[in-house]
Amino acid sequence: MVKPLTRSSAKSFATQSRIDDFFTARVKSRRDRVKLCENSNALVKLKSPPSVGQVITCPPSPSPPEHHDSLLPSLVEYLLVMGQDGNTLSSFHRSALAAIHPISITNIQAQINSSPSLYITDLLSSLSHCRDCDKPSSYISFCSNCTSQNLAINPNKRPIAFNASSMESIKSCIISASKRGLDAFLALLTSPSSKYHGQFAKHGGDALFLFRFIAERVSDPDIRSLASSHMKEIMSQWDQHYPDLLSISSSHRHNHILCFAEAVHAKLFLDSSRPHVLEQHRAHIRESLRFCRLSQLLAFCPLSPTPLMLAPGICPACLRKNPISASNCVSCRRPSQTALDYQSLFFALVWAGLFRNLGLDLACSDKSCSVEQVLVHMSSIRPYKSLEQIGLASFKAQSYFITHLLFVMSNWGEYRLDSILFAPEITFIISNIPVVIRLGDPEIIGEYIQCLRIMGADESDVHVQRGVAYLLQKERSLKSKGSWIKSTRSFYQTYHSIYCALIGLNPMDIDPVDRMPITWRSYFQ
Fold it and tell me: What is the Cβ-side half-sphere exposure of residue 394, based on CA atoms within 13 angstroms?
């Protein structure tokens, strides 16, 4: 008779555990698997334990290993993500794995040794389906409902192996997913749906700016051609609605300056044959800046001797505003702490860099902002913090600061950067790829992979392959519709996730010669 299973408290999903430590802690219970928790420092919520006297039917392990072999793909994924090292399998505590046949353990070890590029890709949805209770299971070695081991692994969750025989198939998957993403991008931006009423005016220029780099720098000519065709259609729609910045009411013009500047940046690629039109747009942007304050565009203060910090009382983990005297956040219960305002910092960096590309100064009626005024704080911004140190919201904002720092320094992936100057950024990205995959964030993963390519990594790099595998399976798990997030997300998140996935999936034509301005190098030495 199977004894009722007990529960124990669990730390955050983001905590890095070695395989032997993890299984030692689970000798008493095999059902207390940690679930994904949005707040990295909050206790994980567990289901109620079985009532006293309740009998849970758990069929004994049959002698033939075939029953367990169906679990191997998912087990390989799980063991790899927990241990990151196939050698740690030799230190398993066998008492914690008594329900898994020894032959299966041997087979898992063999698969890991022969296919070191198998990685877990998504923990946000059901990984398997139980044949006994006919319910989806959140676990991979036993049913999360009845603890049965008679599971069918979801085919969308099987690992992707990068090897000589599979590379051509993977390239085909990348191209197909990219084309679906571009078509979804076009449908979103040209949608007449009232759901997105007014969103095109707010984000259309940004979408054109981002996808300009898909059309210009992706190595595959078919993807470049399709992206360019879609961009022209969207640009035509933009020109019909916003032919001129001065046509917008002066009282609301400051809300459109940055978006319009992004659209002009895209025109540098699409309409390079009409320089007089571009110069007219530049003049209108320059004129509009004279009638607004820098604080209406950015939160960054360029004259501050220290980098911008979050306002007192703002929790860096959840961005909830608390009383200044509070010792803990009322929302996530983290201890109160000060933290950098990474979002405002990378906003200032991106906009100053974009205006520099346009041959303009980001100079308003009172102040101006330049790339150098952000870079001067690099010694204070480094070293970077872990998820546990600063919490989820600040960790994501810090990730975007790092990726956009490399984007701006390389002119958005036009040329490679010196890996010695950016060693802290490379180290952070590589060490946090598993963390962000567990968080289920395809946007950051796509930007991470693009940054690795900017630093010189190619498609054979194991970290690039890991990100590509995650992005492919993420799109496949959402029914292969060219989307990487659920349809309930915002207009901005939808097109931005498509863009990030495409730059993560596709190799880019990057000039191997570092052309970063000399004046910028001194801030990283």
Answer: 25
